[in-house]
Amino acid sequence: MLAIISNVLRGTASRNGARVVVSARTYADFTPQASFDIKKCDVHKLEEGPPLQAVLTREEGLQYYRTMQTMRRMELKSDQLYKQKIIRGFCHLYDGQEACAVGIEAGINLTDHLITAYRAHGYTLTRGGTVREIMAELTGRRGGIAKGKGGSMHMYTKHFYGGNGIVGAQVPLGAGVALACKYLGKNELCVCLYGDGAANQGQIFETYNMASLWKLPCIFICENNKYGMGTSVERAAASTDYFKRGDFIPGLRVDGMDVLCVREATKFAAEHCRSGKGPILMELQTYRYHGHSMSDPGISYRTREEIQEVRSKSDPISMLKDRMLSNNMASVEELKEIDVEVRKEIEDAAQFATTDPEPPLDDLLRGTNPWTKLKSVS
Amino acid sequence: RMTMSRALMHFNAASRATNPPLTFTGTEIEEQVFIADTHCMNVSAGPTQKMNLFQSVTSALDNTLAGDPTAVIFGEDVAFGGVFRCTVGLRDKYGKDRVFNTPLCEQGIVGFGIGAAAAGATAIAEIQFADYIYPAFDQIVNEAAKYRYRSGNMFDCGKLTIRAPWGCVGHGSIYHSQCPEAFFTHCPGIKIVVPRGPVQAKGLLLSCIADQNPCIFFEPKILYRAAVEQVPTEAYQIPLSQAEVLQEGSDLTLVAWGTQVHVLKEVAAMAQEKLGVSCELIDLRTILPWDTETVCKSVVKTGRLLISHEAPVTGGFAAEISSTVQEECFLNLEAPISRVCGYDTPFPHIFEPFYIPDKWKCFEAVKRMINY
């Protein structure tokens, strides 16, 4: 009995001891905030662009780091589970593009609306989903964010409209949401994302016209990761200046690998929309490390060297980490601690996703007309 | 129905109990996805090569590009070989002006194909998945199908062929498993063809390309690798609008197309073994215009008809067949015509094994018809 008590006390003591070491450095030694130079955004039909400097506080930095690291580890874990055939179907991974999701969310409020295409795991997380729900959805279990019926491409949260499989089809939907925002007068806006491949779809241009005509509070964002599946942008588009494709809609070209750049640009765009000036277009230049989906190795249309180069020079997480460490905004141990916590969270989520039961058979009918007698055999 | 839910419970319990990866290789499901024909029918002799479905499509396209200097192939990602390897090697062999990629724009692809065909090129357009064909629906229905009619035969886009992977694949879910043939059957002016295997695919595709009308050729994607046959390397054609009787029988007629033909092959074997019922199996092959004569002649002989397809039952093509057959063969029918199809829901992710009209559902329907 005494042994148990002493063990417990010793445990707390050692934990307190470790915390004492860290907390002695937390408040006194770290820089609370710093200002960073960010890349200038190319503009189209705008007098000026977003500011060239961004202020990052310690709390914000740690939060962005944690979210991006969670996203990264979650995608890598999904890769693993897919190869083990625990996740089946289609799986489009977001690693490399974390700065986009985190930066955008930092520039808008949770009450604003967002819609994207199928590379949606990152946005599901930033829009309020938990890693557990996301991974359980990937494995098709009842604890999933769409009750296991949607899968990788169809994840939704409040004010996040998915998760859409058909390329480009979500853009007119986003304009519709923006119309509702304007109509209801709550000063909300809609962020409407699509990729460089989708930018060549006809319905995108129809949407540009409608949004501009009716001055809808819509931020169109083209996540240009240089490849539409296996086709490079040069081979798919007559004009690769995606931020200019809106023609009469003002545009910005943003460095999508820098979370601060994305945040400042999003804030700028949100301000533009909320002031009633109508839609605005942002092109985020980003990169995905994985192939288009899990069935694409990702190296038949680009070289391993190219992927390595982006990883070493422009990785969003490394960039943020270097910035914080070199300005003494965090310590290496602190970030490592976050890594450990994130790893544990992902492991727990994966465990849950693997062991949760599948949705019940009644769910096959839910969501369709409940009064229709469903027949398979006439 | 009780047998089915028990089977599904067993399926779920097994997968949960041991948590094995849900593999579709070498399990019961994949072995019975494709059952080869016992003998080659209606196809000319000549040197043959072992090919699977996507290789037979490549072979057909190869023959076309070799024999027809106006032939061009285009679509998303066809240049490197296509996401299902149907166009591997063709760009290197015939040049980048004959096999080229398009941007991501289905409406544009088909519209472009119609124009190219109207101007005299043999245009073979690929839509990456049949699920993505809907942006092109207007072009197909309003432009392609009506071109000859509205121009008084001055223009036509008969040289257009649209190819698309079609049907359930085990893990495709909502947007990679659809069978949209029913939407297009409501449109006079186009032809719709679905093969059941490599030999059929090559012959039917070459017929579609040669045909003077715009054709849509749906390729069952689950059979791309699973279906392997000895396919003639030379070009050959299988006539369109001719259904094929795969197995003669006297008690019941089974009609299907594409992957479902193989399911019904099994059902016919089960019916013979367990019920002593002799089934006549018909592969429709061309969905529009379909071979009413073969099907009706068969129903006159047997008196019972079962039609099966993966697409949802309401408004599926089985309804059209059923309606025509009851008009033509009313007095010959011994039992109501049975349709075993998918449920009226979007194609599910996790519930696919329950959704598809598998052999058990079909067998159940056979039993009911025999005992009517």
From TrEMBL, chain A:
Residues 369-378 have a biased composition (Polar residues). It catalyses: N(6)-[(R)-lipoyl]-L-lysyl-[protein] + pyruvate + H(+) = N(6)-[(R)-S(8)-acetyldihydrolipoyl]-L-lysyl-[protein] + CO2. Its cofactor is thiamine diphosphate. GO terms for molecular function: pyruvate dehydrogenase (acetyl-transferring) activity. Residues 66-360 form the Dehydrogenase E1 component domain. Its EC number is 1.2.4.1. It is an enzyme of class 1 (oxidoreductase). The pyruvate dehydrogenase complex catalyzes the overall conversion of pyruvate to acetyl-CoA and CO(2), and thereby links the glycolytic pathway to the tricarboxylic cycle. Heterotetramer of two PDHA2 and two PDHB subunits. The heterotetramer interacts with DLAT, and is part of the multimeric pyruvate dehydrogenase complex that contains multiple copies of pyruvate dehydrogenase (E1), dihydrolipoamide acetyltransferase (DLAT, E2) and lipoamide dehydrogenase (DLD, E3). These subunits are bound to an inner core composed of about 48 DLAT and 12 PDHX molecules. This is Pyruvate dehydrogenase E1 component subunit alpha. It comes from Cyprinus carpio carpio.
From TrEMBL, chain B:
Transmembrane segments: none annotated. PANTHER family: 2-OXOISOVALERATE DEHYDROGENASE SUBUNIT BETA, MITOCHONDRIAL (PTHR42980:SF1), 2-OXOISOVALERATE DEHYDROGENASE SUBUNIT BETA-RELATED (PTHR42980). It is found in: Mitochondrion matrix. The lineage of its organism: Eukaryota, Metazoa, Chordata, Craniata, Vertebrata. Its EC number is 1.2.4.4. Heterotetramer of 2 alpha/BCKDHA and 2 beta chains/BCKDHB that forms the branched-chain alpha-keto acid decarboxylase (E1) component of the BCKD complex. The branched-chain alpha-ketoacid dehydrogenase is a large complex composed of three major building blocks E1, E2 and E3. It is organized around E2, a 24-meric cubic core composed of DBT, to which are associated 6 to 12 copies of E1, and approximately 6 copies of the dehydrogenase E3, a DLD dimer. It is an enzyme of class 1 (oxidoreductase). This is 2-oxoisovalerate dehydrogenase subunit beta, mitochondrial. Its cofactor is thiamine diphosphate. It comes from Cyprinus carpio carpio.
